[in-house]
Amino acid sequence: MTTTDSTAPTAPLRCYIAGVQHECSSFSPIPTALRDFRVYRWGVDPEESTLGFGYGESCRVARDLGFDLVTGPFSSCQPSLPAPHHVWEQVREGILEPLRAAGPVDLVWLCLHGAQMSDQEDDCEGDLLERVRELVGDEVAVGCLLDLHANVSTRMLDAADLVVACREYPHTDYDVRAAEMLPRLAQVRRGEVRPTTAAVRFMTPGIYPTPEEPIRSLVARFTEAQSRPGVLQVSFNHGFEGSDQPDLSASVVVTTDGDRGAAETLARSVGEDVLATILSGTWRGPGVAESVGLALAAEGRPVVIADRADNAGGGAAGDSTFLLAELLRRGVTDAAVALIWDPIAVDFCHAAGVGARLPLRIGGKCGPMSGAPVDLEVEVRSVRTDAAQALFGKGEPLFQLGRTAAVHAHGIDIVLSTVRTQVFSHHVFSQHGIDHLDRKVLVVKSTQHFMNDFGKFAASVVRCDGPGTLTADLATLPYTRIPRPMLGLDPVDRVELEAMPPVRVRQRVVPPTVTA
């Protein structure tokens, strides 16, 4: 899109960066409105430098590479139901309008999720990327950085030159992926490489922690494959099983420099390795009662129970009471639970004040997957308006929790919040005066992102698969539109790789004055 007189001095590549993150669960009890999208702007908002979904990291990388950086907004929404389509249109236009206003650019880099839907659009990322491509034309290099729980579509692959997923779960490597891929996107624009992509998909979406075996070694193997001559990128997308739509799947995406055969061969090879690794393991955890029993029997402290099914980071309400009720039933008196999303209970605690004793109905407010409310006589131990945690367990606690309260009853500390979010770091306890190292049991509403911090001090971890929006018992979820069979849902012990349709390779005319 940048065209200049060949006699003009060279200029840095002009790079537009923007994005949106909204993982949509078709089974969430939480509706989505425009007000739920928080908008960040690089260079304007003080928090933008700490934002950890790829946007802040990518802007820093582009700046350090010497690009002429043009930024649009980054909109972030807690996982929930697909938004009404008019909401998606407004979010999408918020990204496209600054791109139109920017004039000619050389690079477009979007920080996206890969599992965003509206009530009329199954593939919001594909929709956005297609419109970006129509706007900038074939000469501009277009790339996107995805959450690894993306359901990658052919539309995404056709519209973008590079479709790259973060590699780690917890997602601690957005900065690494941006530092790898933005220089490669520049190579695309300068005509130094010709991106050629192939992909395979397979119906094994799920939760695959990357710091642990066998996934740790799998990541090392496909990371090594990316270093081979002519390979630009290799991504393994875990998929998001909460998306009831036809693109639901795990996938492997490979991009080479002009060699379709090599891309197809490597995509199939890595895909077979991924599939064999998934099939070799058992990915379901114990239920509620068994999880508490295992935690109490384990040596050392603290033992962390991850309430995976009620993870707000996957669209759950975050107010289920199944584990809390089991701790109370067993008379456990050395435990702490966080975060239960309950704005009403928080309001009551703030009104009563620290030291107050009051009857409090906790959780169980959003529907059957939340369980029954728990009625307790509690002591209010802490109320805060400034509590925060460290996003993905990295750095300082700057991710705000809104108004919070900590209450104590029957030997159990319970942290309540008005911001619906999963647990990332121990600050959810420590900032409320709870010694997280001096509890036998810590219950955290999170699936895996808590591990980057809690894994450093937990004596052991129990991953509980109880009832909830993110239940591991997929047969309880009312799927109607996904490809079948799916591992964990249908009575099969394996599924097959499916080659995704061939992806377009663009012919580019490179202006002679384009430089890095």
UniProtKB/TrEMBL annotation:
Residues in Microcystin LR degradation protein MlrC N-terminal domain copies: 14-276
Microcystin LR degradation protein MlrC C-terminal domain ranges (all copies): 305-481
Pfam families for the chain: DUF1485, MlrC_C
InterPro entries for this protein: MlrC (IPR009197), MlrC_C (IPR010799), MlrC_N (IPR015995)
Record protein name field: Unannotated protein
Species of origin: freshwater metagenome
